[in-house]
Amino acid sequence: MVTGPAPHVVVVDDEADARAMVGDYLRMHGFEVSLCDGGRALRRRLAEVAPDLIVLDLNMPEEDGLSIVRDLKGRSSVPIIMLTATASPIDRVVGLELGADDYLPKPCELRELVARIRSVLRRAAQGRGPAEPSPPEGGVRFGRMIVDTETLRLRDEAGTEQILTRSEYALLKAFLDNPKRVLTRERLLDLADARDPEAFDRAIDVRINRIRKKVEPDPANPRFIRTVRGMGYVFRPDGD
């Protein structure tokens, strides 16, 4: 059950019937909804409001959904759930690499979409929750990097900042809470509340590769988030 102010969800789909059906169903379940027929309409709406989540169709003629994901995640941490009619593994992996938080094949079961939206919103709320005691820099430090647990930004000692998506933050927090412990992919799925309906390991690997690109001096030879062959991953705060 949705409590408090209704979460605002923007539904982006060039098919009017599908867009209206999803919007009506979400409103029935307590969400505030905005409907957009493509990237230009979405950007106009984002200039007016700050939604809690975006449901985005990837296959649109005006502008490819993956381009929209890339643009939004380059300047915002708003959660995105992708819908793809092809259910292509390539689309899913690329979308995750670009920062999307979840995906569903299209046409989707609307009850499952509502469940996914609520799950992603819970993760977002946890990311905005009270931060644990942190060093004077205003975040959790590992190596030369600092994670700001309030703004979801990652910065180095020179002050250069990067935005963490909600899914990246949830996974990084799982490592921060369990330093020097080997964590299996299964355990990471649970800790980061990132379980996929197909539970395919590639989803975790993609997210870890995204994080490595942001925190590792040399992502090809990681020092902080290291692979333990046949077991999973281990987070080494000191890079030793």
Structure report:
With 240 residues, this protein is of the alpha/beta class. The chain is built from eight helices and twelve strands. The protein has helices at 16-28, 39-46, 65-73, 89-98, 110-127, 166-176, 185-191, 202-215; strands at 8-12, 32-36, 53-57, 80-84, 102-105, 140-142, 145-148, 153-156, 161-163, 182-183, 225-228, 232-235. It has a five-stranded parallel β-sheet with strand order 2-1-3-4-5, sandwiched between helices. A four-stranded antiparallel β-sheet has the order 6-7-8-9, with no helix packed on it. The protein has a three-stranded antiparallel β-sheet with strand order 10-12-11. Strand 1, helix 1 (16-28) and strand 2 (32-36) form a beta-alpha-beta unit. The longest helix has 18 residues, at 110-127.
